[in-house]
Specification:
By secondary structure, the chain is α/β, with parallel strands linked by helices. Helices cover about 35% and strands about 15% of the residues. Strand 1, helix 2 and strand 2 form a beta-alpha-beta unit.
C-alpha cells in the first residue's frame, strides 16, 4: 500500500520519511522495524516500541542504518518517557548503528488542545516537535540508504 501511494502521488522513494504521535508513534516504530529499507528517516513522537521490557536486538539491528529522531516529554502522563529512553538507548547500543539516534527530551509539553484530553499533561510534545524548523531541515537531508 505504501509503495502504491508513493507511486500514485509521485513521491520520491529515496526521501520517504515516517512520523507518528502517541499510538501513531507506536505504529511508526512498528512499520520501521518491519520495513526499514522503505524509509529515509523515522520520527516517533511520544511513541514506544511495544513488547518486552527491553527493545529486541533484532529491532535495533534492523533499524541500525535508519536515521531516527525521537521526541518525548518528561512530564508525559499518557506515554511514560522511560519508553522513549529505552528505545533510544537500545538503538544507540546496536553495534551496527553508524549515527546515534537523535533525542529531543522536553522537560515539559502541553496537554492536547481537545478538552477531553486536557488531563494528559505532557502528551502534546508533537505541538513542539512539529513546529521545529530544524526537524524539517533534517528530514530534507535524509536519503534512503545513506547515513545521516
Amino acid at each position: 500500500l505504501a509503495t502504491d501511494v508513493a507511486a500514485a502521488y509521485h513521491g520520491d522513494p529515496d526521501r520517504t520519511s515516517l512520523t507518528g504521535q502517541s499510538a501513531g508513534g507506536i505504529g511508526a516504530w512498528q512499520f520501521a522495524v518491519q520495513f526499514p529499507d522503505f524509509l529515509s528517516a523515522l520520527v516517533p513522537v511520544c511513541g514506544a516500541i511495544l513488547g518486552s521490557r527491553r527493545v529486541s536486538d533484532d529491532a535495533a539491528r534492523r533499524l541500525a542504518g535508519l536515521p531516527i529522531w525521537v521526541y518525548h516529554a518528561v512530564d508525559d502522563v499518557a506515554m511514560p518517557v522511560f519508553l522513549a529512553d529505552r528505545a533510544v538507548s537500545s538503538m544507540n547500543q546496536a553495534p551496527q548503528r553508524t549515527t546515534p539516534v537523535r533525542f529531543t527530551r522536553y522537560d515539559h509539553a502541553p496537554a492536547p488542545p481537545d478538552p477531553q484530553y486536557s488531563g494528559m499533561t505532557g502528551h502534546a510534545s508533537y505541538d513542539l516537535a512539529y513546529r521545529s524548523a530544524e526537524l524539517y531541515a533534517w528530514l530534507l537531508r535524509q536519503r534512503r540508504g545513506a547515513a545521516a
